[in-house]
Write a structure and sequence with these properties.
The chain contains eight helices and five strands. The protein is α/β, with parallel strands linked by helices and 191 residues long. A five-stranded parallel sheet has the order 2-3-1-4-5, sandwiched between helices. The chain binds adenosine monophosphate (AMP).
Length: 191
């Protein structure tokens, strides 16, 4: 099963991805995690991405499509994958379609975790406090920009998949376990 977990920063995509991995035996592909690893390792990609990430802007589409294209061809993706934080622009969604077609793969589901902006500010501030600022982009100032970028560039991606009839929405304001239960209902229905 190949799916997209869609939602704004702080919606709980990473938390829910952990659960989906275990239940459906698929891997989580988080472009944010991949970029943070590249920054930590000091690779060329990391050097290009760092200042963009710290500002809460988006890394260039061609770089992102390139790393996902490499990753979904690896052996551990054979049973399926969860895309977390990708695609974030219409160009990335179109790029993903090309990648999937090349590899003879299909997308089974797009699960939107819906959370209003006000709740996201509170969550990100909590995460920043808990992780002791290990993520340079987890602060109120950058979040404001990340949310603006989300609404401008990423939210339209949902319409792209709605047209394909692929989107199911769950209420991300619920407790973690209730969100998980809703996602399970959606994904069990696709198996
Ligand atoms: P995330 O962990 O998904 O919130 O991503 C952290 C940061 O990495 C984002 O604010 C962007 O700067 C960058 N990033 C992650 N995924 C993407 C993507 N699909 N396209 C462009 N930039 C991305």
């Amino acid at each position: 099963m190949n799916l997209i977990l869609f939602g704004p920063p702080g919606a709980g995509k990473g938390t829910q991805a952990q659960f989906i991995m275990d239940r459906y035996n698929v891997v989580q592909l988080s472009t944010g995690d991949m970029l943070r690893a590249a920054v930590a390792a000091g690779t060329e990609l990391g050097r290009k991405a760092k200042s963009v990430m710290d500002a809460g802007e988006l890394v260039a589409d061609d770089l992102i499509i390139g790393i996902i294209g490499d990753r979904i061809g690896e052996a551990d993706c054979a049973n399926g994958f969860i895309l977390d934080g990708f695609p974030r622009t219409l160009a990335q969604a179109e790029g993903l379609d090309v990648l999937l077609a090349e590899k003879g793969l299909t997308l089974d589901a797009v699960v939107e975790i819906r959370v209003p902006d006000e709740a996201l500010f509170a969550r990100i501030e909590k995460r920043a406090a808990e992780t002791g600022g290990t993520r340079a982009d987890d602060n109120a100032e950058t979040l404001k920009n990340r949310l603006a970028v989300y609404h401008e560039q990423t939210a339209p991606v949902l319409g792209y998949y709605e047209k394909k009839g692929l989107v199911d929405t769950v209420d991300g304001l619920q407790g973690i376990e209730d969100v998980t239960a809703d996602i399970t209902r959606v994904l069990d229905g696709k198996r």
